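My current task is to audit a protein record that another person submitted. My question to you is simply how this chain folds and whether the tokens agree. This is what I was given:
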Amino acid sequence: MISLIAALTGFISSLFPYFLQIIKDISDKKHELAILEKQIKIQKMGMSERLEAAELFAETAQFRELYTTYKTNIKFVDTLNGLVRPIMAFAFFFLYVSIKYLQFSIIDDSAPLFMITEILWSQEDQAIFAGIISFYFGQRSLAKFRK
């Protein structure tokens, strides 16, 4: 049961980026409507060229700011910044493997195989695995569906 809940949670959590994109699209469209209303006012005043130049300048500055957020032009810092997520993923993976190794090392040698597998592959392990796999495959299939 826990595995099923974890699988569903992993799949549903892969939908969050798309919901955020929809919310962003809605706010972008509201913003575009506001810009269009302003353009109509300015066109009535005969200043549409000026508005377009200002919008283009604002958009360029916004994109420049967005893309320079993660760049410091210091190679070491930029590399370290790009390695944060992989390092965290590997750290948790090695922590998980270490815990499983410790569990295996304290099991009595005479224990039957089914008991060993129940200890090493518990419901919590199945839930973690199901959540991760569901997230990645759910996100992948939704990306294909959107294209």
Summary: Residues 2-146 form one domain. The CA atoms of residues 117 and 143 lie 36 Å apart.
